[in-house]
Amino acid sequence: TFEVELARTGGSVSVGAEETVLDAVRRAGVDHPSSCEMGICGTCETRVVSGEIDHRDNLLTEAEKAKGDCMMICVSRANCPKIVLDL
Ligand code: FES
């Protein structure tokens, strides 16, 4: 479980082991687009304000993953207790 803080909307939501970041932010009231929900299309791409990301998509290059300023929230998760997203 980790925390996702929503920088634009305000508030935060905790992401359980069995749910995706996408599900959690939707639960928090953010109407975020998605399509494949498998980390391959890029529709759910979200800007990361802070936090270390556990990238699990098949879309970003290794360099983009290392830079860590965006993530596919349908599959990727946090590698730290709290991440802040531009949502
Ligand atoms: Fe396709 Fe997330 S919905 S990459």
If you had to describe this structure to a student in words, what would you say it looks like?
The chain is α+β, with helices and mostly antiparallel strands and 87 residues long. The chain contains two helices and seven strands. The chain has a five-stranded mixed β-sheet with strand order 2-1-7-3-5. A two-stranded antiparallel sheet has the order 4-6. β1 and β2 form a beta hairpin. The longest helix is centred in the N-terminal third of the chain and has 7 residues, at 21-27. Bound molecules: FE2/S2 (inorganic) cluster. Residues 34-37, 39-44, 57, 72, 74 line the site of FE2/S2 (inorganic) cluster.
Strand content: 25-35%
Q: Provide the residue-averaged pLDDT.
A: 97
Q: How do the SSEs run, as a string of H and E?
A: EEHEEHEEE
What's the total number of strands? 7
Supply the number of helical segments: 2
Distance separating the two termini: 19 Å
Shape: globular
What class would the helix/strand composition place it in?
Answer: alpha+beta
Heteromolecules bound: FE2/S2 (inorganic) cluster
Taking all Cα atoms into account, the compactness measure Rg is 11 Å
- Report the biggest beta sheet as strand number plus sense, adding barrel if it closes: 5 strands, mixed
Spans of at least 5 consecutive residues whose pLDDT stays below 50 are none
Which strand order does the major sheet show? 2-1-7-3-5
**What share of the residues lie within helices?**
10-25%
Topology of helices and strands:
Layout: E1 2-6, E2 12-15, H1 21-27, E3 45-50, E4 53-54, H2 62-67, E5 70-72, E6 77-78, E7 82-85
Parallel strand pairs: 1-7
Antiparallel strand pairs: 1-2, 3-5, 3-7, 4-6
The structure holds FE2/S2 (inorganic) cluster.
Residues 34-37, 39-44, 57, 72, 74 line the site of FE2/S2 (inorganic) cluster.
